[in-house]
Design goal:
- The complex is a heterodimer of chains A (512) and B (143).
- Chain A is an all-alpha fold and 512 residues long.
- Chain A has 22 helices and two strands.
- In chain A, helix 3 (41-54) packs parallel to helix 14 (332-343).
- The radius of gyration of chain A is 22 Å and the shape is globular.
- Chain B is mainly α and 143 residues long.
- Chain B folds into two domains: 2-55; 66-131, no CATH class.
- Helices cover 71% and strands 0% of the residues of chain B.
- Chain B has five helices and no strands.
- In chain B, helix 1 (2-22) runs antiparallel to helix 2 and helix 4 (91-105) crosses helix 5.
- The longest helix of chain B has 24 residues, at 66-89.
- Chain B starts with a helix and ends in a 12-residue tail after the last helix.
- In chain B, 34% of the residues are buried.
- Classes of the chains: A mainly alpha (512), B mainly alpha (143).
- At the A-B interface, helix 3, helix 8, strand 2, helix 9 and helix 18 of A face helix 1, helix 2, helix 3, helix 4 and helix 5 of B.
Chain lengths: 512, 143
């Protein structure tokens, strides 16, 4: 019962007044960010990173704050899906299908509380999954040498576009763009400057936080400017919540659905390149096929509300597994969380569990605590969050832009970084217009240097023999999965893609 | 058409990247791989994927009308000016102006926009500087 002892230690770390306060703050902010269309989990976490730094928080407290935001955003996304038929963030898009019809029938309150409970079930089970699965993955990861790590990174990039991207060439482009940007700066092994064009500011390399905030948060501002979409949808429509408690029979009816979709969502989250949007999509489709005998899905069936919510919250927890155990995130928000860890000088991966058990277990304990807080916050206080939907984007978006500037300036105090961030914002806008996914760009800038170091280490150890990369069975297995993961979606996923793209939210928060 | 231009641009980018990589001066102390190999691989894949985008373009995205594009360009200019004048004018003034501009362009009435801008700026100043102690740019007036 090693595991429970570690978890106990984790609770000892998480249960301080400061950490509880941070979790509460994170849950609250996260729910708001999730609920507001235009702010999703990834840009929500991104603009809060600088805040965590300037508060001078240590590793565990910052992670607690930001993962609470992450979990909270997953909860919050459903609120505007149900009330307005506009997903608050991408993973919540499937919740519109049955949530909004329920609201139209005057059962908005029930839909909100039921989905809150489903979110809780999904996230709670996924956190247990994280505890059980991550240490096993760590055992495998300890067998990895530099060649295997290089293959693992290649696998992450190859599968990242995965089933949800429209065009594999574009995901490959995005990944290479990110890796290419990471190369800028002084080469860590030989000390020569690379691709800096003599610009002294670039010798240190591009700060990936600048890239993340620019790509995720500023590009959103440009999207809103383009559409001149400044007024809140909530103004036009009357938001009536109605009775808040779901009946027991409804809960009983939904329990098998929640359990099944939690498992499915968790698996979708663990797999690279899937993330919460796909988790909720698969969960909904499977439940529809499995239990929808009378054709009630899509017309306000409670099970259709419970399925995607349990699915996307479970996927959010599942996505933390590869990020913590391997150091390779599978989704946008976990990539942002990886950026936090790297900036705090903590390298995730198998050694994290051995060297910094306090960070890992403190985080896991905090996830449990945050989950209970969110359940408590989301059922009785849901009225408060529906008020937040009234804030029009014409006021919200300038605030987002300014907070982004403040955060980046607060870290570096340099105008040059602000200019770089604006450039990333514009690039992010163009790439989004062209349907190029942004997550591989972020992941590339984050992992580029580690990936190169592993390549060079592997080849140098073997005296310059490049075939060493394909030398061990483990490496070959990883390369094969990478190849399959890249090629298979070209043929297989037309159906999934079409389904997801029909539901794609127009105002679009970026992917989870 | 957009994807063709994008693909062509990508190929040029890859070529430029490869060229810039070859300009790296290698140090006499180098490992077996050297600082050029990995960037060259990146340039190669970048070029191939751009070529694929060029040859098999997706459907045309919905580009905004010229007026909207000008809107975005103007916002970019305002942000650049903001970045430049931030250390000169100080945080509160620069932010109030930039936020007022953005909210005005998103559809707030002019007078309300000025008010929103000032409130945004002061709000951020209070929360981030006075409460959280983040160091913001100091202007000639001390804030």
């Amino acid at each position: 019962m090693d595991m429970l002892a570690s978890l106990g230690d984790g609770f000892a770390i998480a249960l301080t007044w400061q950490n509880l306060g941070l979790a509460l703050l994170g849950c609250f902010l996260g729910t708001i960010m999730g609920a507001l269309p235009g702010l999703g989990p990834s840009n929500g976490v991104a603009i809060l990173i600088p805040l965590a730094f300037t508060l001078g928080l240590g590793a565990t407290p910052s992670l607690i704050l930001l993962t609470s935001v992450y979990y909270g955003a997953m909860y919050g996304g459903r609120i505007s899906s149900i009330l307005l038929n506009i997903p608050g963030d991408e993973p919540a898009m499937m919740t519109c299908l049955d949530g909004y019809p329920m609201a139209q029938k005057g059962r908005a309150g029930q839909a909100l509380s039921l989905s809150g409970i489903a979110s809780f079930v999904g996230a709670f089970l996924a956190t247990w999954g994280l505890i059980l699965l991550a240490p096993q993955l760590v055992k495998i990861a300890l067998l990895f040498g530099p060649a295997e790590y290089f293959a693992l990174f290649a696998l992450a990039f190859a599968t990242l576009g995965g089933v949800s991207s429209t065009n594999q060439a574009k995901s490959a482009f995005a990944a290479m763009l990110g890796l290419g940007l990471a190369m800028i700066g002084v080469d860590t092994q030989t000390g020569v400057p690379r691709l800096t064009f003599g610009e002294v500011h670039l010798y240190d390399g591009l700060d990936f936080l600048v890239a993340i905030v620019g790509l995720f948060a500023l590009s959103e501002v440009f999207i809103f400017l383009e559409r001149r979409h400044g007024s809140a949808e909530a103004e036009a429509r009357e938001v009536r919540v109605g009775r808040l408690t779901p009946s027991w029979s409804m809960l009983k009816n939904c329990t098998p659905t929640m359990l099944r979709t939690s498992l499915l969502g968790f698996i979708a989250g663990v797999l690279p390149g899937a993330g919460a949007s796909l988790g909720s999509f698969i969960s909904y489709s499977m439940e529809k096929r499995l239990v929808d005998r009378d054709g009630t899905f899509g017309t306000g069936d409670p099970r259709g509300v419970a399925a995607p919510e349990a699915g996307n919250n479970a996927a959010a927890g599942g996505a933390l597994v590869p990020m913590l155990a391997l150091g390779v995130p599978g989704s946008g928000t976990t990539a942002v969380l990886l950026a936090v860890l790297l900036s705090l000088n903590i390298t995730p991966g198998p050694l994290l569990f051995a060297n910094n058990p306090d960070v890992v277990w403190g985080l896991i304990a905090a996830l449990f605590i945050a989950n209970f807080m969110l359940l408590a916050m989301n059922i009785p206080m849901v009225g408060l969050f529906t008020r937040v939907l009234m804030v029009p984007p014409r006021i919200l978006m300038p605030v987002v832009a300014m907070v982004s500037f403040v955060g980046i300036y607060g870290i570096s105090g340099s105008s040059f970084d602000l200019l770089v961030m604006i450039a990333f914002g514009v690039a992010g806008w163009v790439l989004r217009k062209l349907d190029v996914p942004l997550v591989p760009v972020i992941l590339g800038t984050l992992l580029g240097n580690t990936m190169e170091n592993n390549l060079r280490r592997a080849v140098t150890i073997d005296n310059g023999n490049w075939w060493t990369l394909f030398d061990s069975p483990l490496a070959i297995a990883l390369w094969s999965i990478a190849a399959i993961g890249f090629i298979l979606p070209l043929f297989l996923s037309r159906v999934v893609k079409r389904g997801m793209h029909e539901r794609r939210d127009e105002e679009g928060a970026v992917q989870d | 058409m957009s994807d063709r231009i994008f693909g062509a641009f990508g190929v040029l980018l890859a070529l430029g990247y490869a060229w810039a990589t070859l300009q790296i001066e290698e140090s006499f102390l180098s490992d077996a791989v050297g600082p050029k190999a990995f960037p060259l691989i990146i340039a190669g894949i970048l070029g191939l994927s751009s070529l694929a985008i060029f040859l098999r373009p997706d459907e045309e995205p919905k580009w905004p009308a010229l007026g909207r594009l000008a809107e975005i360009a103007a916002a970019v200019v305002v942000m650049i000016l903001y970045a430049q004048f931030l250390p000169v004018a100080g945080f509160v003034i620069a932010t109030a102006v930039a936020a007022a501009y953005l909210t005005w362009r998103l559809g707030t009435a002019p007078l309300a926009a000025v008010l929103t801008g000032v409130l945004t700026s002061v709000g951020i100043y209070v929360v981030f500087h006075l409460v959280l102690g983040l160091s913001l740019a100091r202007g000639p007036l001390g804030f």
